[in-house]
Design brief:
230 residues; DNA polymerase, domain 1; 3 domains; 3-stranded antiparallel β-sheet; 39% helix
Length: 230
């Protein structure tokens, strides 16, 4: 919409929209034809829609999000466990969530004797749920941004020696564990994740000149990889 004051001045309404946090945001432009100047202004007019957000259970929303077809099966297990912890901690409607509620959820996870990595994992899954709720206009993302998340700690990594691997390779297991033993040793020798080894087929073994290589789709990174074998 244009509002022309006279031959030298004109105001234009560029946009009027509600943000996901419930604010009414208006953007105006101003043209001074006498000088050729152009200005643009924007302003937010309060949280006019905040009270109109529906009361949706955080736990039910999280369970629905976890059931999404776009989430991989292994990741769904992490969401399922996060939902179990959320239920034990205490459900709440999304419109009632505060920074203190989220900060206390981290403290609850820590009180369960979890390692820092597990605490970060479960809170990250909850953050993904809340970000989806934000995109659907149900949550103010600024609340999540104010949460002090647990720091990543340097963890001492342990690994099997070549001697230990050889000992495992020659150890006889019952028939039901033969595949597990073979997959574990293959992972150790190639550095592949279990999720990638589990999906390998003979058709993934290709010849590259005189050598063999694996050509496969890596699950975690969603990329196509080539791995020399011999």
């Amino acid at each position: 919409m244009n509002i022309k004051i006279d031959s030298n001045f004109q105001f234009s309404v560029v946009s009027i929209q509600y943000t996901a946090t419930g604010e009414l945001r208006i953007c105006l432009s101003y043209d001074d034809f006498s000088s050729g100047a152009h200005y643009q202004y924007s302003a937010s007019l309060g949280n006019s829609q905040a009270e109109e957000r529906p009361s949706v259970s955080l736990l039910q929303y999280a369970k629905s999000y976890a059931a999404s077809a776009n989430i991989k099966p292994n990741t769904k297990d992490s969401y399922r466990l996060m939902c179990n912890h959320l239920e034990a901690y205490g459900d709440i409607t999304i419109d009632k969530i505060t920074t203190a509620y989220l900060q206390d959820f981290i403290k609850y996870l820590q009180s369960q004797g979890m390692k820092p990595g597990s605490v970060r994992l479960y809170f990250q899954k909850l953050a993904c749920v809340l970000h989806d709720a934000y995109k659907n206009g149900l949550f103010d993302d600024r609340i999540l941004q104010r949460v002090k998340r647990p720091k990543r700690e340097q963890e001492k990594k342990s690994f099997l020696t070549e001697t230990e691997l050889k000992k495992l390779a020659h150890h006889h297991l019952s028939e039901e564990y033969n595949n597990i033993q073979s997959m574990f040793l293959f992972s150790c020798m190639t550095g592949l994740r279990y999720s990638d080894v589990q999906g390998l087929r003979w058709k993934d073994v290709k010849r590259n000149g005189k050598h063999l290589q694996l050509e496969f789709h890596q699950q975690k990174t969603d990329t196509y990889e080539r791995l020399p074998l011999a």
